[in-house]
Amino acid sequence: MARRFALPPAQDPFVNTPLISLGPGADGAERFWITSWNSVSGTQAIMITEDGRSEQHRFPDHPGFYSAGPEDADTLWLCGDLAKIIRYDLRTRAVEQFDTGAPYALMFGGMVVDPVSGKLFGLAFPPPDPTAISFDFRNRTPGSVTPNPCAEHYSASHFANGDGTFTLLAFNPDLALLRWDPATDRVSRTLVSELLGRPVRWTDRSTISATITDDTGHVYLPEVGWYDPLGQRLADGPEASARMNWFALRDGTAWGAAMAGEMLTVARWDLASGKITELCRIPDGTIQGTRLTESGRIVAVTMFGTFYLIDAEDGSLLHARHVPSDSIGHVDCLRRIDQDRLLGTTFITQRFWSLDLRTGEGEDLGRAAPGGGEVLQTWKIDNRVYLAAYTGAELVEYDPGRAARFPENPRIVAKPATGMRPVAAADDGRVIFYSSNHHYGELGCVITRYDTGTGLARYADDPLPGQAIRSLVLDSAGTALLAGTTMDADCESAPPSDDHCLFTRIDAESLAVIMTTKAPAGTRIARVRGAIDQDRFLATLTGTFDGRSEKRWLVLPAAGPWPELTLADTRPLPEAATVVVPTGTAGLFVLRTPSGFALWDFRGDNPVRLADVCDDPKAYACEIQDGSLHVLLPDAVLVDDELLSRFS
After folding, report:
1. Number of helices and strands (H, E) in the chain?
2. What highest taxon heads this organism's lineage (predicted)?
3. CA quadruple 163, 210, 253, 289: dihedral sign
4. Of 102, 127, 129, 107, nearest to 492 (Cα)?
5. Is 28 helix (H, G, I), strand (E, B) or coil?
6. At the topology level of CATH, where does 65-237 sit?
7. Is residue 127 scored above 90 in pLDDT?
8. Coil, strand or helix: which one is 125?
9. Which string of DSSP letters, residue by residue, matches 575-597?
10. pLDDT digits (tens, 9 = 90+) for 553-586
11. 354, 374, 357, 249: which is closest to 312 by C-alpha?
12. Is the pLDDT of residue 182 over 90?
């Protein structure tokens, strides 16, 4: 019989979203706005004044708005999805939604909202093509949809050119300066590589989430120089000696910020002398969440909703307060600590929580890993829990018997230099294996092997050039890893170099590739799911086959040589299943279908449905550990310690 427990709330993450000024309110105090990301409870916004008075605004039907801009003192335009624009009335809290005519894509910061023309402009990446949109918000009508205005995928920020036009900065693979004319909706492009006369690889927004403009109208682009937007050329000017995102410039002084782990450094740059002075460090601060007020002080809202007001001259802390933002978020991982405790991690918060299965009480345990991102893989080995995190692919060790206090507990025990997102995991009860995608814009992956007994880590970078491993399963002997790959970069952020995916066998000790075989044509992701018996493993394919987008399954022999695989060797997953979860018992798998989760037996010639696990279509994940089933619903977790034992 399944037991149901309410999920514990954790602090919402204020990430990837610029802190923007809304100008003065009725009382004259400058107001600022920032939103969280939460696909379960909906995003929440903090509107906070320079003196720390705050309001919270909830959007239960929207996961987040990475772009925002004011039309006037009481009206905001918000966007998190290229396909739709949101108008928000700050007084009445009325929400209006408008279609743009573009496909869905996650829009990051940088959207232009121009009150003069009554138009807005933004860019996002609905694969395979970057797409720009304009929208006439004065008349509430879609404007233009421009496919391929550049090859660059992600927007970062924008600046006014001084003639009624704007430049939006987009990056990956190059840095593109997209010039938009609201009068005509014409978009033109200048690449930084063209300005510099050399190849440029620009794959992050850490120095371009905001820009500074001097008295002549020239804009500073770190590592590029001063840019004249009217002449569309580089201009002479002082260069900063530190790599930072410069977010404000007044009277010859610029202020900038740079991340290092979970700490944000804020500094002041005297342009005349070139001297850069560190002012302060903000725990859990973000580059996008730090700005200069009209009165000349620094305001910051951290990743976890703490507000700081800082003296911009000497870095003195003037005001600090925490704005409560606890919400139930999307859970990425569950791991049973013991019979009575469950550990969970929530999306893009880098936090983790515990749930007491006797009392139903939960506790937010704080950070699990450095930087921004989330924990995506977990293991329970002996009396420790291990967690691997995006964006640095760090592996951390957590001792549940001690107080949680990162970076002491959990503590970092492995970190591959080229890793970003951990996407595949296995272990043999002592040694942990995981594969992490390379960073955005880069093909391939890195495998980490960590011995929990000795504390030694080993890495294999790019073991299959051009391919990223998306699944890892130990063979029956425990001497080799069976893996499936994708030819795509993370989030399709770079074009593939291959036209196929692979199944591969990798030595568990040396991490050397033993053999490979191509997945059938049309495959975009190949995965090995788990053992059917000692000699056979269940594998799945995601792709387009015979003109249909679907998921298919096949049987992969444990030992080689592997035959050449064709579509005839595969069959569609039963009941249009989209997720396959190994149970730990050979041949038994839990499948997610449109109606929920069910237990299936793949040992015979045809898969057999054995039992419902959860018939709620809102259930979105199932984690299985030591014979116990854990099913995630938007606001609860179902724990069943008995069902699998009836069929094992």
Report:
1. 1, 58
2. Bacteria
3. positive
4. 127
5. coil
6. Methylamine Dehydrogenase; Chain H (2.130.10)
7. yes
8. coil
9. GG--EEEE-SSTTEEEEEETTEE
10. 999 998 878 889 999 999 999 999 999 999 999 9
11. 249
12. yes
Q: How far apart are CA 219 and CA 161, in angstroms?
A: 9
Instruction: Round to whole Å and give the CA distance between 13 and 529.
Output: 32
The token duo for 552 is 């298919």
Q: Which of 264, 335, 276 is nearest to 301 (CA)?
A: 264
Q: What is the pLDDT of residues 435-474, one digit of tens each?
A: 999 999 999 999 999 999 999 999 999 999 999 999 999 9
| 107 within 8 A of 82, measured Cβ to Cβ | yes
Task: Report the candidate in 288, 159, 141 with the shortest Cα–Cα distance to residue 227.
Answer: 159
The C-alpha atoms of residue 558 and residue 475 are separated, in whole angstroms, by 7
Task: Report the run of H or E that residue 193 belongs to, with start and end.
Answer: helix 192-196
Overall fold of domain 579-648: Thrombin, subunit H (2.40.10)
Rg (the chain; Cα; Å) = 26
Q: How far apart are CA 428 and CA 440, in angstroms?
A: 30
Domain ranges in the chain are 65-237, 579-648
Q: At which residue do the structure tokens 């580089």 appear?
A: 234
The set of residues, in sequence order, having a beta carbon less than 8 Å from that of 221 and lying 6+ positions away, is 175, 192, 207, 208, 211, 227
Distances (CA, A) of 477 to 284, 507, 587: 44, 11, 17
Q: How many Cβ atoms from other residues are within 10 Å of residue 606's Cβ?
A: 8
Q: Quick one: which of 44, 49, 45, 43 has its CA closest to 22?
A: 49
- Using DSSP bridges, classify how beta strands 43-49 and 30-35 pair: parallel, antiparallel or unpaired: antiparallel
Contact call for residues 191 and 200 (beta carbons, < 8 A):
yes
- Residue among 111, 115, 78 at smallest CA distance from 94: 78
Which residues are 596's β-sheet partners? Answer: 593
Query: What are the tens digits of pLDDT across the range 309-366?
Result: 999 999 999 999 999 999 999 999 999 999 999 999 999 999 999 999 999 999 999 9
